[in-house]
Every structure is written in structure tokens, then in C-alpha cells.
Amino acid sequence: MTVVRTRFAPSPTGFIHLGNIRSALFPWAFARASQGVFILRIEDTDEERSSQAAVDVILESMAWLGLDVDEGPFYQTRRMDRYREVIAQMLERGLAYRCYMSQAELEALRERQIAAKEKPRYDGTWRPEPGKVLPPVPAGVAPVIRFRNPIGGSVAWDDKVKGRIEIANDELDDLVIARPAAEPGGIGTPTYNFCVVVDDLDMGITHVIRGDDHVNNTPRQINILRALGAEPPVYAHLPTVLNEQGEKMSKRHGAKAVTQYRDEGFLADAVVNYLARLGWSHGDDEIFSREQLLAWFDLDHLGKSAGQFDEAKLRWVNAQHIKQAGDAALAPLVRAQLERLGRPVAADAGWLAPAIALFKDRCSTTVELADWLGMFAGPVQPGAEDLATHVTAAVRPAVAGLAGRLADVAWDKAGIAAAIKETLAAHGLKMPQLAHAVRVLVCGRAQTPSVDAVLALFPRETVLERLRAA
């Protein structure tokens, strides 16, 4: 049985956003679901635009989302000798040839074809054929190297997303596979479409799962693979991810870096869940774990239409994952957010996990959780309006009375609830009158979960100090 081998092959020419990373998620999920191999390949042949910083962000984003790789990262710029070796073999076997048509000649040819309402394409001037006399080699022109594309017939494949696709070979001209070389008779820089083929061949890729912006490259890549004696992998071309305005997701159209979602308090498993659902489905399941995704994932349920990103939906998915997450698992994430707020928390803070348990149902991100829990990690500053509204002259005596009672009760929810009940009875107040005042003074805000449960998470002395400040 053939081992499934998939790959993610990003170009490090800018930060990676959610639309890009989905092209890593699906081949990763398919490899994991199939007990296969997932490979990372950095396609950095565009040396002017590629950067190590962009590579670092790709690696950081994949590590955060848990998209672990089995092989790689491999860098195309480090494989140039291998690409040139294959091109040299193709030249020897007549599968490729040198083309001396200058850029000016190509542009003139293109203009003539457009004027004649023909499809602009290279016309095969330098393509060797039996009995054909080639033009004299011009002086001073460094040739490109072109692949001898088959003439006649067609190239076809059964795409796992788009179904049967068939392209006539006569629609494809002879692809440039190497740019002009600096030295006579040499092989210049191999081109992207060629490097991809050699990589997929050498790495034994069985399934190419990538964005549908590569569909036009596929027939050329299949023809080169077959010329090299290999059968093509299975292809699945994923529909585009659109932004909330219906445009292709991109940095230019406001897309955020993947790592920004981490910093904004989203859980990796929630982002994986959301992205998987944005192009694949398992019945009507909306919320699922990473383990369920890998148990269910296949290529037969990939969506055929573009998915539209919706941050409100992502927040809802994240909220569901926060509710389901263990409090101990959330603790380090919330601690990191509190540190960003300037409220560091000791690693052994006993209140953190219970506070998470109390507040997480009302939060959609760990940033929101940290905002709530800041009251436990440092001083609070009640707003003037809240103080004026809730800590009135009529309530202050009850606040003082409650502070007195809380000084000697058992410091737990039941003991605090009993002290509040006694205070209400002694001062003839209703629960909201006292509870709002206590919340404003102790928590810095008028709305919280059950006041006795919240107070129990504070040290007794902190509560007494804040109540006495009234």
C-alpha cells in the first residue's frame, strides 16, 4: 500500500494569513488521517521578495497551530544543483532545448498575435524537429531553456475538488524552465513551475492539496512529470478564501497574520476547527476537536465553492472551545495575556484556575478572560460613574457592616453568602443594592458572576481593604 505523502509549499514573500495557512491545514490533516507523511517546502526562488523573517513567521504560525511536519523544511534555493542536473538530462534526451528568441522578438510576436486575434504564445521558432532547419544562433543572446511540450492530444486529471479537468496540449506553449545563464552553455536559474515538479518527484508526493490559483500550472507540471517518467500525484485544488468584503483574502485587503490571532486570544484548536470548516465538512458538525478532525478528514468532502471568512463566527467557535477547555490548560494562556496587561501572575497562583472556571463562559477570547481576571492580579480603579451610582450614602453603612462580618467568617462561598445575607437583613436592603456596591469596590465593575463566588477567590485582606476604602 502506497504511503500518503503531502506537502505545504509556501513562498516566504510576506506574512502568512489564514487563507494561506488553510493550504497547510488540509494536507497536514490528510497525512495525519492516513498515517502518512507531511512535508514542509519553502519555495524561495523569488530571492528579491523572499525573506528569512517571512520563513520564521511561517514556522511560528505552524508551530502554534500544531501543524507538525515529518520532513523539512526544504528550501528550493538550496536545491539549485539538483534542478540544473535534471535540466541537463532533459537537454541530452531532447526533452528540452535552448531558445535564443530575444525579449524584443517575443514582444513583437505577441503584438502580431494579439493583432490577429490569436492567443499570445511562443511559436516554437527554436524547437528542434526532424528535418527542421533552426535559425543561426545570434551573437550576444543568452538563451532560455524551454520544455518540449507534447503536440496534440490533451492533459487531464480528476481533481478531488473540481472534478475532471482536461486541457488540449496545443493550448500550452513550450514552458521556460530555466532563465538565461551568465556563462555560455550554462543553465541559468530554474523557474518555479519546473522546481515544483522536481521537488514533488524527489519527495515522492502522492497528493498535492493546494489553492486553486495553481490550476493553470497543473497541466504543465503533469506534462513535465510524465516526460521524466513519473505519473502525477492526486490533485485537490482548494477554492479561494474570501475576506468579509467578498475579496480574495490578502494582506492588501486587510488580512491579519496568523500569529495575530494567537496574540488576540484565540485558541489554536479553535482556529484549526474554524479553518477546517471553511472548506470541508463532516455532516452538520460545527464544533469539533483536533482528534475528531483527524478521525473524520478525507478529500471527498472538500467544499467546491469559495469560503468566506467571518470573524464573528471565528469568535463564536473560539468561545465554544474556551468553554470546553480545561481550566488548567487555559491557565498559561491567560497568564501570558495578564503579563501583556502588566499584571504578572505567579506560576503557583491558586486562584487562577478557579477564576477561569467562573468567568470563561462569558468570554470569547483569552484576552477577554484576562481582562476579567485583572481584578485578582492587581489593584482596581472603579469608575467615577459606577461609584456615584452604586456606592451611595444609603449603602455605605451596609458595606462597612459587611466588612466587619467578613473579617471572621469561613472564607468560602457559603461563609461569604451567609455574611451578605445577614448584612442585607440588618440594613433592610435588597441584594442588588449591596451586591453592585461590593462589585464596584472590590472588582472595579458593577457586573460579575455571583458575588459570593467572586469574593471567595480573593484573599480576605484584599476584599476587606477594598471595602473599607468606601
Automatic annotation (TrEMBL):
<feature type="binding site">
    <location>
        <position position="251"/>
    </location>
    <ligand>
        <name>ATP</name>
    </ligand>
</feature>
<dbReference type="InterPro" id="IPR020751">
    <property type="entry name" value="aa-tRNA-synth_I_codon-bd_sub2"/>
</dbReference>
<dbReference type="GO" id="GO:0008270">
    <property type="term" value="F:zinc ion binding"/>
</dbReference>
<keyword id="KW-0067">ATP-binding</keyword>
<dbReference type="InterPro" id="IPR008925">
    <property type="entry name" value="aa_tRNA-synth_I_cd-bd_sf"/>
</dbReference>
<protein>
    <recommendedName>
        <fullName>Glutamate--tRNA ligase</fullName>
        <ecNumber>6.1.1.17</ecNumber>
    </recommendedName>
</protein>
<comment type="similarity">
    <text>Belongs to the class-I aminoacyl-tRNA synthetase family. Glutamate--tRNA ligase type 1 subfamily.</text>
</comment>
<dbReference type="InterPro" id="IPR049940">
    <property type="entry name" value="GluQ/Sye"/>
</dbReference>
<dbReference type="GO" id="GO:0005524">
    <property type="term" value="F:ATP binding"/>
</dbReference>
<dbReference type="InterPro" id="IPR000924">
    <property type="entry name" value="Glu/Gln-tRNA-synth"/>
</dbReference>
<feature type="domain" description="Aminoacyl-tRNA synthetase class I anticodon-binding">
    <location>
        <begin position="338"/>
        <end position="470"/>
    </location>
</feature>
<comment type="subunit">
    <text>Monomer.</text>
</comment>
<feature type="short sequence motif" description="'HIGH' region">
    <location>
        <begin position="10"/>
        <end position="20"/>
    </location>
</feature>
<dbReference type="InterPro" id="IPR004527">
    <property type="entry name" value="Glu-tRNA-ligase_bac/mito"/>
</dbReference>
<dbReference type="Pfam" id="PF19269">
    <property type="entry name" value="Anticodon_2"/>
</dbReference>
<comment type="function">
    <text>Catalyzes the attachment of glutamate to tRNA(Glu) in a two-step reaction: glutamate is first activated by ATP to form Glu-AMP and then transferred to the acceptor end of tRNA(Glu).</text>
</comment>
<keyword id="KW-0963">Cytoplasm</keyword>
<dbReference type="InterPro" id="IPR001412">
    <property type="entry name" value="aa-tRNA-synth_I_CS"/>
</dbReference>
<dbReference type="InterPro" id="IPR033910">
    <property type="entry name" value="GluRS_core"/>
</dbReference>
<dbReference type="GO" id="GO:0005829">
    <property type="term" value="C:cytosol"/>
</dbReference>
<dbReference type="GO" id="GO:0004818">
    <property type="term" value="F:glutamate-tRNA ligase activity"/>
</dbReference>
<feature type="domain" description="Glutamyl/glutaminyl-tRNA synthetase class Ib catalytic">
    <location>
        <begin position="4"/>
        <end position="316"/>
    </location>
</feature>
<dbReference type="Pfam" id="PF00749">
    <property type="entry name" value="tRNA-synt_1c"/>
</dbReference>
<feature type="short sequence motif" description="'KMSKS' region">
    <location>
        <begin position="248"/>
        <end position="252"/>
    </location>
</feature>
<dbReference type="GO" id="GO:0000049">
    <property type="term" value="F:tRNA binding"/>
</dbReference>
<keyword id="KW-0648">Protein biosynthesis</keyword>
<dbReference type="InterPro" id="IPR014729">
    <property type="entry name" value="Rossmann-like_a/b/a_fold"/>
</dbReference>
<dbReference type="InterPro" id="IPR045462">
    <property type="entry name" value="aa-tRNA-synth_I_cd-bd"/>
</dbReference>
<keyword id="KW-0030">Aminoacyl-tRNA synthetase</keyword>
<dbReference type="GO" id="GO:0006424">
    <property type="term" value="P:glutamyl-tRNA aminoacylation"/>
</dbReference>
<keyword id="KW-0436">Ligase</keyword>
<keyword id="KW-0547">Nucleotide-binding</keyword>
<dbReference type="InterPro" id="IPR020058">
    <property type="entry name" value="Glu/Gln-tRNA-synth_Ib_cat-dom"/>
</dbReference>
